[in-house]
Amino acid sequence: MSDLAVTTEGLTRRFGSFVAVDRIDLNVPRGSIYGFLGPNGAGKTTTIRMRCGLLKPTGGKADVDGVDVVHDPEGVKARVGYMSQKFSLYADLTVDENIAFFGDVYLVPRRRLAERRAFALDNADLRGREGTLTGTLPVGIKQRLALGCAVLHEPRILFLDEPTAGVDPISRRAFWRLIHGMRQAGVTVFVTTHYMDEAENCGTVAFIRGGRIVGLGPPRALRQAGDTGVLVRIRGVDRATLAADPRVRGLTPMGAAWHVKLASPGDRIPLARDLGVPVEPVAPTLEDVFLDACDAQEGGP
């Protein structure tokens, strides 16, 4: 068995003249949490749907758990769990009815379904609420139940498409505990998000913008590679003043301060003198690195 759970080579998807995914090459190690980061419309969902055998690629290759997604999409579907960006359960069914339905869809044996049902209920903290209509549950609990249903058949590979979108911080933390638990059990988790802080939970992250990979690596390595000495933090200065300064190459709001990209590390001290405020060197966040990668793709800030 290969050490890679998922591989793609030149994976492409066009819709007419629009290129949604443009020649993506990715290798996802088994038993890892692999993050796919990018803004809405970047091509994250299209890539996942191709990898799950739900959408045929226009070009390139993809292999999931040793199965070719082009030649055997049904074989891929049997090996993966998929939680879509849009809430995937039936709101007018009860918790128990949803579990039973997805157990049938995934062909979970009856003798095994009872144990997997308990797993799904415990993960979502829904013991005693099995008869509750799913549509009435809080968003965070719905998502945890959806995750439980997506893994009823115990897939080796799990695709999660923005699973915490619209979820409160406490529920997000609980959801990520579940993801880490699955990784420890040997499941490979491929997760898309536009929350940069969530990427810190991933062993490897890929930045995608306009259907293309614009950055790839472990979060720490990406931050270190982006630490060129030109990023500083400035407080108490308005955006217009900073944007008009020729030494400034980029601006990102960070709470009450700005992360400012300078043209040169040597600009820091003169800029502080001219502005009359502290200009502090700062280590880049993953968001800073992502924005730099996007700027580079577009040819400038």
Descriptors:
6-stranded mixed beta sheet; Rossmann fold; alpha/beta; 10 helices; 301 residues
- For the record, the CATH architecture of the largest domain stands as 3-Layer(aba) Sandwich
Biggest β-sheet description? 6 strands, mixed
Number of strands: 14
Percentage of residues in DSSP E strands: 25-35%
Walk across the major sheet and give the strand order. 6-7-8-3-9-10
Number of domains: 2
From the 3D structure, determine the CATH topology of the largest domain.
Rossmann fold
What is the count of DSSP helices, taking H or I runs of 4+ residues? 10
Oligomeric grouping of the chains: single chain
**CATH-assigned homologous superfamily of the largest domain:** P-loop containing nucleotide triphosphate hydrolases
Briefly characterize the structure:
This protein has 301 residues and is of the alpha/beta class.
Any overview of this molecule?
By secondary structure, this protein is an alpha/beta fold. It has 2 domains: 4-218, P-loop containing nucleotide triphosphate hydrolases (Rossmann fold); 228-282. The protein has 10 helices and 14 strands. The strands form 3 sheets. Strands 6-7-8-3-9-10 form a 6-stranded mixed sheet, sandwiched between helices. It has a 4-stranded antiparallel sheet with strand order 2-1-4-5, covered by helices on one side. Strands 12-13-11-14 form a 4-stranded antiparallel sheet. Helix 7 packs across helix 10. It is globular. The termini are far apart.
